[in-house]
User: What shape does this take?
Amino acid sequence: MFMQYLSFTFSFVCGNDMQEIVSDVLASELVAAGFEAFEPSGSTLHGFVQEKYFNEEQLKQVLDTFPIENVKITYQCEQADNQNWNATWESEGFEPIEIGKDMLIYDAKHPSDLVPHTIEIGIDACQAFGTGTHQTTQMMLTQLSKFPTPPASVLDAGCGSGILSIAAAKLGAEQVVAYDIDEWSVSNTCHNATLNGVADSIRVLLGDSEILKEVDEKFDLVMANINRNILIADMSQFVMLLKPQGKILLSGFYEADIPLLIERAQALGLNEECRMSNQDWCCLLLAQATGKNE
Assistant: This one.
């Protein structure tokens, strides 16, 4: 049984050349208010949020402190029917995406003649973020594939479609714990893990970071492709679940957000190991300082 959703239509006034940027930034910021699915369309953005998780105060803060100047944003809200708002997009699917030379992400609904790759991940996206089309997902997958020794144990925070968990398992992780606040995402991660033959390696939990209190394991790697504010709020919990010299891989934020994230990371005993950028989106790899959590 799925939760009742609210449907928001955000309208913004800006130059045509800024519409995509404003839409991306707005969607990223709205995650902090509980939003989990979006449909961009020119100067409007449709957002969907479970009533249970909707944070009106956080929404007000997002609009009052929107980081792009001279953009006026208004919205309308209504009850949403319980349906899959991504149905049209899902029916059209997405083109195969190469990550480096060895990894291929493809649409499991529309398989085509694929050039064989060492690691192939089929994603059947059912209202869950993470098909590999977004810059942040691609950077996370790129960094994950560069580990000289695959992390044996991995935590995937905000798993969406499960693409990062599946990639970790296929790269050699023996144990992956994934969680998401969205029931669709939890179901979709389980479905995609089975589709890719790695269901036995991935345990999926429903909830926000509070669910981590029920996790007894420690991890070599924590992955989180989430909104900046959530990353800052939850980073201390990620650190508590790291093994000695463990690492944290983060994305879902912009270059302008890096100083805030680095400041929080350093306060928790983490050092920046490397960073990537793609169209203003960023990815950070943070390393547990020697001697921490030992």
